Amino acid sequence: MRILAMIIVAAGLVLGGTTGKLTGTVKNKNDNTPLVGCNIVILNTDLGTASNPSGEFTILNISPGVYSVKAMMIGYQSVTVTQIPISVDKTFRLNFSMDIQVVEGKEIIVVADRGVIQFDRTNSEARVTSDVLETMPLTEVSDVIKLQGGITQDEGGGIHIRGGRGSEIVYMVDGISMTDVYDGGISVTVENDNIQELQVISGNFNAEYGKAMSGVINMVTKDGGDTFESSLNYYSGDHMTSDPIFRGLDTYSPFNDVNIAGSLSGPLLGDRVTFYSSGRLYRSAGWLNGLNTFNMYGDTLFIDENNNRVRDIGEPYHDENNNGQWDNGEFYVDQNGNLDWDDPELTLTPETKPMNWVDKWSSQNKLTFKLNPKVKLRIKYILSHDEYQSYDHHRRLTLGGRNTHFSDGEILGLNFSHSISSTSYYDLNISQSKKSYKNQVFESVDDPRYQIPDEFYFAFMGQNP
């Protein structure tokens, strides 16, 4: 049995990107001169600024998402630009051209278009937003990552970026490293429903990801909004094929694999306190089957009537009439002294059973406190539990005595974000990450089944224990 427990406490400035940037200029449509003092507001947020004497503006610390931005100035017709995508560690450039308003007219609405060439992009990366995740028929973050360029998966399920080792990947959740120091994976499960934006950097990453050698997987989780929103997803099914190489898959059970996922978000105290909660339960009975024929000690499966873990073949007797069975009155050796002849313990018919079963669940929760328009406090708590057995082709006839894997992860984090101005801000993150992993045959280390029966010990070692 192997047991690992790991606790990490990290405090300091943000280690990875979690927000984006908006910049641009405001000019007079008629003579192309810069407009100073034009108000630039990101709708449905508290973020905004005014253009400087050069007509330029910058807004920092914008959470990833799609926004509408409005430019307003006395004497000019207001302009609103919609569908502006803001991504982590990226700058979106937006230029306004405003016309003089002689009489009150209609507001101009423009739909933004991200350019084909991103001039601030210096690395090889892929981004998946929450809108895209909702349309993908995938339930695991690892399945989404595997679809990106430069990503491969080995036979054990490990992820590799551009041929590097799986332990050379840095996993980030809301700017904090959540890489498991034992196996290099992520220390807690983050579900698709909880992700606002997923960033996969496969080369030329910035200095803020200094510990990464192969790649970076950066996940930004969702915040609650000003309105209540909920979702519920359910699916169930089974694997089925007539291919004889797969044992026992010629029948269909609609509830062999069951997945339930849901989320709920909204305000608690107006727009001052919001929450986001999501959870997922996944259970699979498995679909790679074995034919359970022998027990873990190598004996044919049998009914162990006396619980000695060894099949009793019956007490010796003298078959006087040669009928192949003991008859009342025939001589026998009473080995256990119960004054009766004992039948051999019956063997069991081999049974087809799945070997790769899974039982796991996770829960993600976040509270957001808007202390004032420029200060936010976020508290998040993520919890996950995985319990499973893997398929072992060498043990397909002996299903007992195989290791069961237990993995538990937990994240408790606090984020303090202060926008000093439209061009400066700072984030303070304090988080605690726990990961425990157990790999065992039986739950208790004192389980008597860990001991080899005396008869087998003598057979293996040639001597009594």
Gross geometry: elongated
Q: What is the rounded distance between the termini?
A: 23 Å
**How would you spell out the order of helices and strands?**
EEEEEEEEEEEHHEEEEEEEEEEEEEEEH
Question: Which strand-content bin applies to the residues?
Answer: 35-45%
Category by helix and strand content: mainly beta
Quick one: biggest sheet? 8 strands, antiparallel
In DSSP terms, counting alpha (H) and pi (I) runs of 4 or more, how many helices? 3
| Total count of domains | 3
Structure notes:
With 465 residues, this protein is mainly β. The protein contains three helices and 26 strands. Strands 1-26-25-24-23-20-19-18 form an eight-stranded antiparallel β-sheet, with no helix packed on it. Strands 4-3-6-7-10 form a five-stranded mixed β-sheet, with no helix packed on it. Strands 11-16-17-14-15 form a five-stranded mixed β-sheet. A hairpin with a 2-residue loop joins strand 14 and strand 15 (176-177). The two termini are 23 Å apart.
